[in-house]
Amino acid sequence: MTDDVRNIVLGVLAAGISATLGWLARTYLWKRRLRRKQAFLGLPDGSESLLVVNRDPAASEPAVHRFDVFALLELAALVKDCGAHVQVVTQDMVGQGFGERTEFCVGGPGSNRRMVAHMAAMLPGVRVNVDPEPGPDRGAFQIGSERYRLEAGVTEYVLLARLTAGDRREARPAFLFCGQRAITNQAATRYLARHHEKLARKHGSNSFVLLLKVVNSQAYGPDVVELVGDVTRAATSPLPTPAPASRNSHRA
Questions:
Q1: Which top-level group of life is the source organism from (predicted)?
Q2: Is 71:186 a contact under the CB 8 Å cutoff?
């Protein structure tokens, strides 16, 4: 074997080894990211999940708003990426407990009975004004002592929560997407899809409640979303009791 042939053979072998090592490294990193994603979402390979669909309160017949349909598609893609399965159930037909399967619950308390139950059980510090009558507080969130009003198409809010049942390590999480309008539900699901790695690094397997603001949805749709803050403590604590009105006594 001449030196030229030997160099060619060694070059081919080196290229093959480098390509193999690169493929193994990429596969390892991809699998590690997938395992972290599955752990955060509670969706191991072949697991079952529940997607709770709300109803459009503005429709006379049972229907789902188109932005909520888009939100469901975002969530279905996340589940598929994890190699898990999803069962779609309407908000009034769930009929099961919490923590057995990962749950994605879409829609505010005005359109989703399941959301009402979750908020009563796990988010005692949150109130949503579901009064159908027009007024400045219609659709407003109260979280602890703070109030967040809806300005349709301009400034809208949505809660994105990851909640687990007590201290059970095996319990699967429930993800809540509780928005003031349907487009904010889609904004929250898209936020989760885009930022799940960052959220997993920050929160791990712990529960959290984030308040998001959807900016100028009439122009930008569900794409421009700002994180207002982590409101976990206020949302999971009972609402503060209003102080009694003080009365001054005067002696004649």
A1: Bacteria
A2: yes
Taking the CA atoms of 192, 196, 198 and 199 in sequence, report the sign of the dihedral they define.
positive
pLDDT digits (tens, 9 = 90+) for 33-87: 888 899 899 999 999 999 998 887 666 667 788 898 999 999 999 999 999 999 8
User: Would you say residue 170 has pLDDT above 50?
Assistant: yes
Sign of the dihedral through C-alpha 56, 59, 64, 68: negative
Judged on CB neighbours under 10 Å (0-12, 13-18, 19+), 96 is exposed
Strand, coil or helix: 177 = strand
Enumerate residues 6+ apart whose C-beta is below 8 A from 132.
Answer: 138
Residue 106 tokens, joined: 């879409």
pTM of the predicted structure, to 2 decimals: 0.83
Query: What's the maximum distance between 2 C-alpha atoms anywhere in the chain?
Result: 121
Helical ranges in the chain per DSSP H:
3-41, 66-81, 113-122, 182-203, 217-220, 232-236
Residue 161: beta bridge partners?
176, 209
CB 62 within 8 A of CB 111: no
Q: What is the pLDDT of residues 75-97, one digit of tens each?
A: 999 999 999 999 888 877 777 77
Which two tokens mark 155?
Answer: 């400034």
**Whole-angstrom distance, CA of residue 196 vs CA of residue 171:** 19
Give the Å distances, CA to CA, from 175 to 2, 98, 107, 111, 152: 66, 11, 11, 16, 24
CA distance 73 to 78: 9
φ/ψ of residue 151, rounded to 5 = -125, 95
Neighbouring residues of 1: CB distance < 8 A, sequence distance ≥ 6: 9
